[in-house]
Amino acid sequence: MTRLLSSEFFYNYRRNLPAMLGSMLLLFFALMALLGPSIVAQNPYDVSKLELMDSFKPPIWLEGGDSRYLLGTDGQGRDVLASIVYGARISAFIGLTAMAFSCLIGTTLGLLSGYYGGTVDNVIMRVADIQLSFPSMLIALFLMSAFGTGIVMVLIALTAVGWVVYARTVRGSTLSEIQKEYIQAARVAGLGNLQIIVRHVLPNVLTPLIVVSTIQVGTFILIEASLSFLGVGVPITEPSLGLLVKEGFDVLFSGIWWTSAFPGLFIMFLVFGINLFGDFLRDELNPRLR
What we know:
The protein contains twelve helices and no strands. By secondary structure, it is an all-alpha fold. Helix 3 (17-39) crosses helix 4 and helix 11 packs antiparallel against helix 12. The radius of gyration is 23 Å and the shape is elongated. The chain starts with a helix and ends in a 5-residue tail after the last helix.
């Protein structure tokens, strides 16, 4: 810890206001998602605790607000703040899990493509080029529409659109690494291709992966929210932030703005914090990605 606090990285972090703001936002949202259910009084998805008579109560600072519901309630009497806390857990789980799967698949394919080259490289990169010619949202919509909804399908769709970024990033770094003398020395020493890839190439391509992974989490949260808003993402039994925005949007023009606005603001500030911190990591860990 002492070494980290005295490092150049931490020194630059303390002098970077956007990075500090982004990390504080992330810490706040992480604590809310982890500890929120033990703090909020209501489980918004336990029907035995819902009161329809409390539906569409405004936030506490507006006329008619109830001190029990800081951000108001929705049409089913659910506390909007409690719904955001529970929804954030689902959205964060999907974003982090999809990032992990995309990173695993994309890194593996990128290493193979960059190290072996030739036909392997051509096949993998041509598939990547074809996929990149279509918007990620369009591919995800097609997969969800064709194969059904649910958290598992959302993860599959996000992984299918996310692996390409990792594959291309790792391929570029691998092509640079295999030209260096230590790789040639490892080959002369008799190490096999798998040993060289795992022990020598992979550790040296982790830096850009950290940067890409940070930003991808925010991208996946946005895509999942969009899919759920369109009704092809997470089912209502497993609510996410996008689904909360959709439910509130149906009554938005009736003057009941809080049921949609607060979940939307939560998504905006969450992704904003991720991007701020991701930009800092990009500049510090891999200036070539600027």
